[in-house]
Amino acid sequence: MLNQQARARWATAMASGMLLAGCTSASGGTAVGQLEQTTITVDAFEAIDTAGLFIAQQDGLFAAQGLTVNLRLQTAVQQQIDDLAKGTADIGSGDYVTFVENQTGGDPDLGGKNPDLRIIAESSFLQPNVLDVVVPPRSRTNSVAALRGKSISVLAPRNIGDILVDSLLVDHSIPVGQENYPLVPFPEIGTAFAAHKMDAAFAPEPFVTTLEELGGAQELADLDQGSTTDFPIQGMVTTQSWAQQHPGTLRAFLRAYNEGQSLAETDRAKVSKALETFLHLPAKVASLMALPAFPQGTDPIRLQRTVSAMIRFGILTGTQFRDFNITSMLYRG
């Protein structure tokens, strides 16, 4: 049964979806002649947060707009930014921390070239039990306070995992300088726990559910709390030059994408099917695991929280970033 918050989210998403459907029907879709490019390449981050994009593909929503979308699953956000900068991809998806870091400091793989990224849509923001800190079975680390001085694995340095874990510790009066963050890929968390490589781990769904199902970990803390409640997780980006040269194509893409987001927010069965198809998740895991919220459009106030956290925890350093506003990265078509 849906709780009051979930019912409210469902009603809002349904209203947005009905409005979007009405606009699409009124316009009769997009004529091929209005599309500057009918085949586009989209780098899709391999995560549950990409469910709206997956649904738009599996339900033929892009095709209905006259688009052929070639989805390429990616496990690294930096590779997607490289692809956008080199022109080998048209649109990408990933976490905002990596987007902002490349925009402000340049692409580290391309000699510091500024990729001139534009966030075209949100993909997800945090909801309960989607991103957790987990510990091994029968661990003596049984509270957040017990994490003081412990090693907590993350996927990569200077990314959203660092921010969320740092925020959890600071909210519980633990100085972040005392912690050690070994880098452990999510699929290897259970094995790393068995080898005693760390005391705790930052883990997203579906790995939380999989680890719990296999008895390889237990939840210690839900990161959807305190200063990171409803925190923005993932979004869609392109370059400013591509957006300027392909406005009709981008509008068609976003119409289909927003329909996919609306369905992801309201139709759990479609989400499960998409994640089984694109991420090859077992049906049981896809149906049991917690999901993030799937918004439409962009909320600059919510997205600015990423910048504030990056400054707070030293990912963005220097006085020049104190006034950096995420709106400078938002696409306004």
Features:
D-Maltodextrin-Binding Protein, domain 2, 2 domains, alpha/beta, four-stranded mixed sheet, 9 strands, globular, 16% strand
Kindly describe this structure:
With 333 residues, this protein is α/β, with parallel strands linked by helices. It folds into two domains: 4-126 and 232-329, Periplasmic binding protein-like II (D-Maltodextrin-Binding Protein, domain 2); 131-228, D-Maltodextrin-Binding Protein, domain 2. It is built from 13 helices and nine strands. It has helices at residues 4-27, 51-58, 61-64, 77-86, 96-105, 160-171, 189-194, 207-214, 240-245, 247-266, 268-278, 283-288, 300-312; strands spanning 39-45, 68-74, 91-95, 117-125, 131-135, 152-153, 200-204, 218-222, 232-239. The strands form two sheets. A five-stranded mixed sheet has the order 2-1-3-9-4, with helices on both faces. It has a four-stranded mixed sheet with strand order 6-7-5-8, with helices on one face. The longest helix is centred in the N-terminal third of the chain and has 24 residues, at 4-27.
Order of helices and strands: HEHHEHEHEEEHHEHEEHHHHH
Proper CATH architecture of the largest domain: 3-Layer(aba) Sandwich
- Mean pLDDT across every amino acid position: 89
Number of helices: 13
CATH topology of the largest domain: D-Maltodextrin-Binding Protein, domain 2
Assess the beta-strand content as a share of residues: 15-25%
**Largest sheet at a glance?**
5 strands, mixed
Shape: globular
CATH C-level class of the largest domain is: Alpha Beta
What Rg do the Cα atoms give? 20 Å
